[in-house]
Amino acid sequence: MSTSPAAVFDRLSDPNPPTDTPVLFGTAIVIGSSVAGLLAARVLADHAETVIVIERDDPGTSSEPRAGAPQGNQIHVLLPGGLRQLERWFPGFAEQALADGARPAPASIRHNYVDGVRKVSGSQAMMITGSRPFQEAQMRRHTLALPNVKAIIGRATGVQFDGDAVTGVRVQTDGAETVERADFVVDAMGRSSRLSEWLEQGGWQRPAIRRMTVDLNYATAAFRRNGDGLDVNALLAVRSPELSADVAGVAISQIERDRWLVMAGGYAQHRPGRTTEDLITLCRTEFPPEFGQVVSNEVVEDVRTYRHADSRRRDFHLLQRMPARLVAVGDAVASFNPIYGQGMSSATLHASCLSEFLRSRPDLSKPARGFFELQKVVVDAAWSISTGADLALPHVDGPYPRFYKVLQWINGQITAASVHDSDICRRFDEVTFMLKHPSTLASPAVLLRSILVNLRAKKKA
Predict the structure, then answer these.
(1) CB neighbours (10 Å) of residue 163?
(2) What's residue 240's pLDDT?
(3) According to the UniProt entry, where is the signal peptide (predicted)?
(4) pLDDT of residue 229
């Protein structure tokens, strides 16, 4: 079996439901009910007699933003790679989501602009759109419908260790603290995960954390969608740092309850769309006409802003000393500049890592290094996509990878060519959609074709 990152990524992206799923635990606990936590619980349902999801917030059946996800009212994109995995774990997910109000976004109505130039058509992979709370509610309903999965409302305050393994989670509910015993624990507490502190307090190593400052400011408002006659979805217009120091771009998607979500993003001190009026003016005056058409509709939710300070990753895979029966997923391991839309899709692939690891019948008396090595492939892929682009921003100053200048030039050639060439655009989309590993773009044939495409484009300009 090939172990190249691209081959591992292909395995993890398998759309087929797994077979041969041995029951390995009595009770497994997932701390956190975000996308990563819900998908981890779904995987664990194949391998545990009982799965407990500890939820800090009680969403009930609501599809409103959770207190634990303050960015939940901003645009969130479910990339085709993530949708493929959701269909794997919940067959019929897309059909049910569409029936409940999600919106289809086939390639024919997705429009993508770079510096005002509309890109050619690329990947034909299907997308669906909806608000983050709506999509999360869909996943929650599917997960908690499983007979061996249950949720408890409480705040995790620590993990219990016995010898070389984790044996439970301390939970505070209504002012009282209890211990939920567990044979396996998953940290899905997100960017603010406290697992590192708990490990250190228990005498274990804490993972090193890497950060890249991005200082992204974004603002989102909702508009009525009834009767505007605009047959588009998943609109994106981005600007190169060289051409725009203030506005990074604008994204628009259809969501449930006949609404448009419109988001503007900017970096550092630039905060486009601070008010709804600012956002409307921006879309009408600085972007293609369809952006202005969307914001001509009735405003149903005024602008809500959010700041994302940095991309970060915790290097669990490098720990020399770590307890057995413990893993971390989602933003608890790595969170990226959200403008690239990788968060939810990365979380679904972390679930695939967990499934492959558990189906290998690992020695559970030892740390889950096999899981973290699989997860590293996914994290490295998303990290290289987002940070590679972020390093081109004038206010970002490293850390730079080896051979950065060469990599920057190669990526620049391919990215520029993807605007004009359908085959390169398809390959580019497959990587950014998290369907393929980034290394699949780095072939000499793709680079040569990109150079020739760009030369022809310059002659026409």
Answers:
(1) 8
(2) 85
(3) none
(4) 80
449 is written with which tokens? 């074709």
CB atoms within 10 A of CB 20: 7
Contact partners, residue 116, CB within 8 Å, separation at least 6: 237, 288
User: Taking each helix axis from N to C terminus, what angle separates 80-89 and 93-100, rounded to the nearest 10 degrees?
Assistant: 110
CA 162 to each of CA 131, 202, 361: distance values in angstroms, whole numbers, following the listed order = 42, 10, 22
For 54-70, the DSSP string reads EESS--TT--SPPTT-T
Which residue reads 């050619």 in tokens?
Answer: 120
**Alpha-helix residue ranges (DSSP H) falling in 186-275:** 195-201
Q: Quick check: pTM over 0.85?
A: yes
CA distances from 355 to 13, 322, 323, 337, 341 (A): 12, 20, 20, 26, 23
Specify the pLDDT at position 442: 85
Chain centre distance of CA 125: 17
Question: In the beta sheet, which residues pair with residue 213?
Answer: 310
Task: Tell how strand 235-238 and strand 103-104 pair up.
Answer: unpaired
Euclidean distance between CA atoms 68 and 136, whole angstroms: 13
Q: CA 404 to CA 357: how far, in whole Å?
A: 33
Residue from 261, 338, 266, 337 nearest 303 by CA? 261
Angle at which helix 132-144 crosses helix 93-100, to 10 degrees, equals: 130
**What are the structural domains of the chain?**
5-70+79-96+133-210+311-379 (3.50.50.60), 103-130+212-308 (3.30.9.90), 390-460 (no CATH)
Per-10-residue mean pLDDT of the chain, 461 residues long, equals 87 95 98 96 98 86 55 82 98 97 97 96 97 95 97 96 97 92 97 96 96 92 88 93 78 96 92 92 95 96 92 96 97 91 94 98 98 98 90 84 89 95 97 95 94 93 72
pLDDT, residue 71, reads: 63
* Residue matched to tokens 């307090």: 201
Torsion of CA 94, 99, 100, 105, to 10 degrees: 50
Q: What is the model's pLDDT at position 4?
A: 93
